[in-house]
Amino acid sequence: MLEFFVKGGVVMWPILMCSILALAIFLERLIRFSRMRTRGAGLAEKVIRLLRTGDIGAAEEKAVNSNSSMGRVLAQAIRFKDRDRETLETVIMHATEAEIRNMSSYLQALATIGNLAPLLGLLGTVTGMIKAFMVIQQMGGKVNAAVLAGGIWEAMLTTAFGLIVALPIVLAHSYLLARVDKYETRLNDGAVKFITELDHHRS
Known about the structure:
Layout: H1 2-7, H2 12-36, H3 43-52, H4 56-65, H5 69-79, H6 85-103, H7 107-138, H8 145-202
C-alpha cells in the first residue's frame, strides 16, 4: 500500500492531508453531538412546569444551568416573555439560528474537502499523463508499451485515492447534516411548546 502511495506522486500528500483533516472534523463534531444527546432532553417540559407555578427565576435558572442549546433558547425566551408575540418569536428564531450555526461549524469545510479530494486526484492523473507523454516524445515516438502502461497506471492512482478519500467524507457530511436537522427540529418543538404555554397562561 505504501508502495502504491509513493508511486502516486506528490499530489498524494495533499489528498492524505485532506483525509486527516476531514477525520479530525468528523470526530470533533461527533463527540460534540454525542454530548448534546442528553443535554436539554425534556428541558422544555421542566421549564414549562416551573412557569405554571409562577417561579420565573427558577425556570430561567433551570434553562441556563442545563448548558444546552435548548436551555439557551429557552433562557432568551423567558427574558422576553412579557413582550409582544412578534418580538418573542423573533428572539426565539434568532436564538435558534445562532445555535444551529454553532452546531454547523466546520461542516462547510468538510463539504469543501469532500469536493477537493477527487479534484486533486484528477490533477495528479493529468500531471502523470503529461509525464507519460513526455517520455513518449523523448523516445522519439518509439513507444514502449510497458513504459507507457506503467506511467498511466501510476497516474491513475491519484484519482483512485482521491475518490477513496472523498466517498466517506461525503457520507460523513450527510450524516452530520442529518444530526443538525434533528437538533433543529428539537429546538423548534421546544420553542412551540413554550409559546403555546405562554399563550395559554396569558389567556
